[in-house]
Amino acid sequence: MKRRQADTVHSPIYEAEVVAGLAAISASELEQRVAGVMEIVPGYPRDDSVRFSYTGEIGTLMKLRTVQAIYRVLAFPIPRPKALLGDQNFKLLAAAIGAILTAHPPGAFRTLGIAAAGAQSGVMQRIKQALAERAGLIPADDRGDLLIRIRPDAEHTGWECLLRISPRPLATRPWRVRDLEGALNATVARAMNLMTDPNADDVYVNLGCGSGSLMIERLGRPRARLILGVDHDEIALSACAVNLRAAGSSMQPIAVVRSDITQLALPANYANVLTADLPFGQCVGSHPENERLYPLLLDEATRISVAGARFVLITHEIRLMERLLAGRRDWRQNAEQRITLRGLHPRIYRLIRT
What we know:
Layout: H1 5-8, E1 13-17, H2 23-33, E2 37-40, E3 49-54, H3 58-61, E4 69-76, H4 87-102, E5 111-115, H5 122-135, E6 138-139, E7 146-152, E8 159-164, H6 186-195, E9 203-207, H7 213-218, E10 226-231, H8 234-246, E11 254-258, E12 271-277, H9 287-304, E13 305-315, H10 318-326, E14 331-338, E15 347-353
Parallel strand pairs: 5-6, 5-7, 9-10, 9-12, 10-11, 12-13
Antiparallel strand pairs: 1-3, 1-4, 2-3, 4-8, 7-8, 13-15, 14-15
């Protein structure tokens, strides 16, 4: 990305919150999908965020799919948050809030909340009340539609206000009508699909599709030749069907079938892309069950895939997966990405069929 320091000084600063471990993928998405990004701010991307300067429309940023949420960042060289109520600082905050509100249809935001250490203090409550009154919103808790995070800056020489640009986190997808316990985070699903190097020739099979996160996040460009989801659980398949309809998949080459993922009714050399959110052994499955399932699934993935196929999977069974891969010659590990998800530390593996 080109560095244009002179322009960056006057460009608005934003911060993308990401699943820890996926910052590099999100930074790449910014570069490829968003015109107007001037530069990634020095010191970023960090493990769980990407800070960047941007001169374009707020609405464009809301199209990003590998980020949890995006915030407009305002820096204030003040000793204490109380100074945010000063006339100049308050006007800057109010103007930034106004720009966010006008980027959405009327009524998209109803409430305003503050997330900060000491959010219940008298000072923070006055800041919230004053900003909500100026914006015509209802004061709320830290789950407000217009969410403002107030924190010391990195050098502890002032304070930052981070204003979320959307009434809900971007990771909260509108297609997720039916949710299941242990369902994959949508931004992780999108990142995993990017790791498959998607192209228009893909015959894509999602093993253990569950409620459809990986399949749905593969929809769009480039359009695959076929997207096939397989699961043995009727409840999961029902949820998947509902979510697929909500995602507008009716015009896509997509299908869902009920089957044991270790004994698929598919021909050999069928797919060139596979994905899987394997049971972690916490919410879904158990370690003894996974000891049996994982090698059988890898065997079946080998049977149905062509030479050179890409297989991207996520698991929390790190020792089991590494032991299995070390003993196989049909799959070569091409990449490994460690992430933090719901307090766990799973890994994403990219395998290539030999």
